[in-house]
Amino acid sequence: MALVLEDGSLVDGANSFVSVAEVRAYATARASDLSAFADAAIEAAAIKAADYTKGLRDRFKGDEIVIEQALPFPRIYLVVNGFELPSDEVPQGIKDANCQLAIESANGTDLQVTTQGQIVTKKKVGPLETTFSDRSSESGTQLFHAASSLFAPYMSGSPGALSSVRI
């Protein structure tokens, strides 16, 4: 599937905030090597990052412009650090967070984990015995600290709210 970039003009069918070139440039600037990945893999990762961002849409400040917009940005009444941001742009922090998530996805991290977070370390069928690991975060809810810090200025709640919330 080809990328359809949201540029702030409410692009029909938008499925990403960032291009392959933007993801690669962001990664390179942070010493992450994506050279082994084909453009198609980076495209898929960028779409997954936007899908993840869509899951947070009700936690962002401001309001979506129209009810049927494909992605949660652009927004109206979006105030960050005391300034109202333009309603015809996707903020750079949102693009950066999506680049970070695309890197995670390209490197094999499932952005939308569907397990309950328990790892079975031992299973015995006769008298039914199951043992779970105490390291449940390995397959349960993922914590994306880098992306969370980039999303934080655009999210509702107190400045420290994301540090205790898994997104």
Please provide a written account of the structure.
This protein has one domain. The protein starts with 19 loop residues before the first helix and ends in a 16-residue tail after the last helix. It has 167 residues and is an alpha+beta fold. It contains four helices and six strands; from the N terminus they run H-H-E-E-E-E-H-E-E-H. Helix 1 (20-29) crosses helix 3 (92-106) and helix 3 (92-106) packs antiparallel against helix 4 (145-151). Mean pLDDT is 85; it is low at 160-167. Strands 1-2 form a two-stranded antiparallel sheet. Strand 3 and strand 4 (83-84) form a beta hairpin. It is 29% helix and 10% strand.
Overall pLDDT score: 85
Query: Helices and strands, in N-to-C order?
Result: HHEEEEHEEH
Strand order in the sheet with the most strands: 1-2
Helix share bin: 25-40%
Oligomerization state = single chain
Gap from first CA to last CA: 26 Å
What best-fitting shape do the alpha-carbon axes yield? globular
The tally of strands reads 6
The low-confidence runs, each spanning 5 or more residues with pLDDT under 50, are: 160-167
Please tally the helical runs, counting DSSP H or I stretches of 4 or more residues: 4
Specify the biggest β-sheet.
Answer: 2 strands, antiparallel
| Beta-strand residue fraction | 5-15%
- The overall number of domains is 1
Whole-number radius of gyration? 18 Å
Structural class: alpha+beta
